[in-house]
């Protein structure tokens, strides 16, 4: 009999992520979720979820559950299903050691607390979890661990890969080993030097009965305090094992997970993590992060709260960097039926802008290198019949394989801008030559993408919903051509530079003709896109759009105090567009990209960032950016003080608690305020 499992694959939000900035631990991306912090989902617990190694977009386990068995009360309490309260945080703004705390209550009213601390090793590809369970009164207990092995089930992976797991028992230790024929993980536990499992099971996820039943069914659903041992399995698997603690009031143990491309190395990494001990790995982890932060901007304002959020945002950006791609995934977040664990060229551009503002030049240069590596340089025609030479695909798997493939102009003009900005900020003229062909190819595509009437051809809007003449996409194309002109001038290619400037000037002169509408149901404003391919309600050519504010910053195409931009900004405070109870504007009125799939009250912090820069610069609200970074943001953060993609009308995090684009805009606002002007403006006309 099969029943849909309740122990994995639900839409997930994330409150904290972690990796290392140096060493083999850079291969690992760990994320943690606090269900207690999200009113939209069931459960009040916190647990590790969707941990990956070697590729940030491929999980090696979906989640790690810790369960408490109390024979006196005949109860098995799980962190997510049964905790009565929970919290997830980092121990420090600059050191993302994840701390999870879960509170439990048994039927007799007595309680228990489970605290778990998590770090990745710098010296090896492993992660270590320090566990401490404290009970109100001593008693016989068994502590269980269940790992849902996400090592199976990725449709972009090799369909012929082997997905299997086994328990190996040696003289020295017991260990769970799992693999997909490419990546291996090994899990061990240690309590006072004893590295054994008190019962273990490899099961088939979702199988409730029979010899192949899941570890979840055997431990949690059967609720009898026993595991029926099972040593191996293949397919969609979970693994569970126990730790018996007689007459315990406090139980402390360590769980280590090693990763490798072969089984023996994965086992070695897990064993070495236990040999080193949690505190030793934690010290090396902290030293690596402190060393990295010493090379970038820290505490830029002197305001304790702002500097704290700034450093956390910068730490999150670095933690989201895939060590092989040398670029950042958009977010460790999985709404229903999709994931943000891809690399978007546009998101890289904004992250490069933020990294440069914060002095993280090495990571910014690496991200520009990634843009160069994945640019389309062959004769490729997409499904619309567009010759894509010189452009980028919409987003990529971390191995550089294309995923979504629509044409977005901010993912053509944006990379030229990123190249130009990196050159400007570092002062390194070698960067011009290093990526000149990349930018020239992109500029040549843009020059050929004119509609014959002085404007770019249609393309997909930045929200990836509408095909038409998008305000933000066109502005980014203009900015890209202007950046290319300066790059070309530096190489002595003055004719090409002039060609880029002239085309940018013509397009800019027609911005309002195409993208500014009057007498719409909302007023006079820039729209999402003119001449949309389809017209949902509200229509993309009749609704104001927060991406239009990027036409001022960073694209520098429409002045902040231009009447068209000013009238758009004046609408951003209206109830039909902004959150009711907090200062946060949404993408556009009637947006249905929400957790419910219907239009909801709420806003996007990154949209508010772009709107606030316009308000700041055009005099509508000269304190807009200062209020944003010092005050408004306090209503939007997660339990770990990271910034989300979206908030509800009251400011509570709605989903995606670590969107890196949002982290980047916070850094950029702080740096802009510190400089007294918007940071990273593209060249003007």
Automatic annotation (TrEMBL):
Domain Glucodextranase N-terminal: 74-293
Signal peptide: none
Pfam families noted in UniProt: Glucodextran_N, Glyco_hydro_15
Domain (GH15-like): residue spans on this chain: 327-610
UniProt-listed Gene3D superfamilies: 1.50.10.10, 2.70.98.10
The keyword Hydrolase belongs to this UniProt entry's keyword annotation: yes
UniProt-recorded Gene Ontology molecular function terms: carbohydrate binding; hydrolase activity, hydrolyzing O-glycosyl compounds
Keywords: Hydrolase
Gene Ontology terms: biological process: carbohydrate metabolic process
The UniProt record lists the keyword Transmembrane: no
Family label: Belongs to the glycosyl hydrolase 15 family.
Protein's UniProt name: Glycoside hydrolase family 15
Source organism: Halapricum salinum
